[in-house]
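User: Show me sequence and structure for the first protein, then do the same for the second.

Assistant: Starting with the first protein.
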Amino acid sequence: MNSKYKSLKEKVYIANINLVKKGLVIYTFGNVSQIDRDNGIVAIKPSGVDYDKLKPDDIVLLDLKGNIIDSTLRPSSDTKTHLKLYNNFTDIGAVVHTHSKYATAFAQAKLPIKCLGTTHADYFYGDVPCTDIISDEMLAKDYEEETGSLIVDTFKKNNINYHLIKACLVACHGPFTWGDDAEEAVFISDMLEKIAEQNYITHTLNPNIESIKLSLISKHYFRKHGKDAYYGQKI
């Protein structure tokens, strides 16, 4: 293992294993990456490797153009989506993609996950968006890179702040999340799945439910996040 990036590889390995422990992946369908911004190096899960066989040294290192630095294994097939996010959301530190049950169901239904309550508002400042369906023109280009473009364009078109909503559903595909590091990005994926499950149940009880008011979203989100946050203990 490249000793310079040993810690980065181990963090990404642990984060990928945690996807399994949290029940967020099906077989090998899922991946975590983390970036070393100072050196422009991304560490990501190799493509198609079973989680029970995955080792820290299997984690693939590459640059922001997708050039492999140190591995004989191919990186995740979703690598270009991750790179698109790193190159456009220029201060995120990690990206996660899963096919978790409820969040993927919303993506397949081509629906956003509405902010229906304060559990959602604690971690996402509004509805989690769903992209448009990928066009045939985009499919004819580089599929994974264009998937990243769908996410970036969805946030730009709808004027959504990627710092306040660290997740997006790709229509007909599944969820992507991000964070300051791999640990946070996995946590966001886990919260997204739990919120999607609650959202599904709520829609079953009341199909006409609408998102809660912005003032209530703001109260709950900013009491946990930002300079005036007061939830929890001071470190």
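Switching to the second protein now.
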Amino acid sequence: MTLNPEWKEFLIDYLKTPQARELQQRVLNEYNSRKICPPKDKVFSAFNNCPPDKVSVVILGQDPYFNVGQAMGMCFSIDPESKCTFPPSLSNIIKEIKDEYGECRVENGDLSPWAKQGVLLLNTSLTVRMGMPLSHADIGWEGFTRAVITALNRQGNIVFVLWGSHAAKYRDLITDKSNLILSCAHPSPLSASRGFFGCGHFKKINEFLLGLEKTPIIW
């Protein structure tokens, strides 16, 4: 459970706080006593695959997948080699991309190529008990997530993608006018038809990046 040096430096003010040390101990205690998702060595995958100075897009999820083999440390992403059940939210994300572009390059469910292009796939909680959604929502991850978003907000020229009411709670932290906020319903089957489908977010992200003369994301 190691955060790379670039992110440690980027988040140094938060990481020196008692709250950060308490969170670390709580998480380690959970791994020592429960079945926790994702595997311990994957907790910071979203960060270790996308350095802070390369972040151009933040997609904010809720907590990791809680079924066997699904969570791999990046929101909405899976490891195809795990042969896990394909999450319906991820299926809906792929459907929206295909509706916008006619094709999708990550139909196997592995969103790692997005991370390598500057998309931080951030869950608001980075861990969860297996089979128990939101079970780690109150152990201290919110403070960590708020620190990440606050620091990236100051960096500027970033697209923050907030899907669903849970992600929308962090909107108040995004104050720099150079950033773009995109929000709509969550891609879950329970809500996707109420605004996620047809949101056009993937094209809007690339239009924003092109306007900054940045390389668009290959979705």
